[in-house]
Design brief:
The protein has a single domain (about 10-205), classed as TIM Barrel, CATH 3.20.20. It has helices at about 10-15, 30-40, 55-70, 80-85, 100-105, 115-120, 145-155, 170-175, 185-190, 195-205; strands spanning about 20-25, 45, 75, 90-95, 110-115, 125-130, 160-165, 185. It has an 8-stranded parallel β-barrel with strand order 1-2-3-4-5-6-7-8, surrounded by 5 helices. By secondary structure, it is an alpha/beta fold. Helix 2 (about 30-40) runs parallel beside helix 3 (about 55-70). The longest helix has 18 residues, at about 55-70.
């Protein structure tokens, strides 16, 4: 799948996507990603902070090959420079990372994490993540926003959005009932004994 540019936003495609996997690297990366995609993941973002840049670029190339073969959107966390080198479809940034407009200068669509109504209202990104809905060790120190912010996003977000943070099979239906039609997960799939089955259970709980 060719890399999109700022003139070709992923927003129209993201509107039809439902299950977004944010993932670190692991030894069986390609097989794990294929299993998750077969289970229903249709967006993959690599978020890996422990690897040096060279090794990270290798991991991104591996993820790009798998996602391209499956027709799945592929993004990189925080690093628009490496996202460009890896041929990613987009880059995702947080509130304290490089600003959205600066990230766009790399020629990539940009996703943004949001944690409050004002951040949702002011977001100019191509899509947003809303959370963390529940407490999660992947966002240590970040208090959960609960379902109330999910409800706010459902009525106020201007772009496609994904609920994120501590979402798993046991609570995903509550998030959907609060108005989410898309979710992003990390541990629910990454730590699962069967990533494909974990993805399938989540996807089955989401709207078609």
């Amino acid at each position: 799948m060719p890399r999109r540019t700022s003139s070709s936003s992923p927003a129209p495609l993201l509107a039809d996507r439902r299950l977004y996997l944010v993932t670190p690297f692991r030894a069986d990366f390609a097989d794990y990603l294929r299993a998750a995609i077969e289970g229903g993941v249709d967006v993959v973002q690599v978020r890996e902070r422990s690897l040096p840049d060279g090794a990270l670029l290798d991991a991104l190339a591996e993820a790009r090959a798998v996602t391209a073969a499956a027709g799945v959107l592929f993004g990189v966390n925080d690093r628009p420079d490496l996202a460009v080198l890896a041929g990613a479809d987009f880059v995702h940034v947080g509130q304290d990372d490089i600003p959205v407009e600066a990230a766009r200068s790399f020629g990539l669509p940009v996703g943004l994490s949001t944690h409050a109504p004002r951040e949702i209202d002011e977001a100019v990104a191509d899509y947003i993540a809303v959370g963390p809905v529940h407490a999660t060790p992947t966002k240590e120190g970040r208090p959960p926003v609960g379902l109330e912010l999910v409800r706010y996003a459902a009525t106020h977000a201007k772009q496609p959005w994904f609920a994120i943070g501590g979402i798993e099979a046991s609570n995903v239906r509550d998030v959907v009932e609060a108005g989410a039609t898309r979710v992003a997960v990390v541990r629910a799939i990454f730590e699962a004994d069967d990533p494909g089955q974990a993805a399938r259970e989540l996807r089955d709980a989401l709207p078609s």
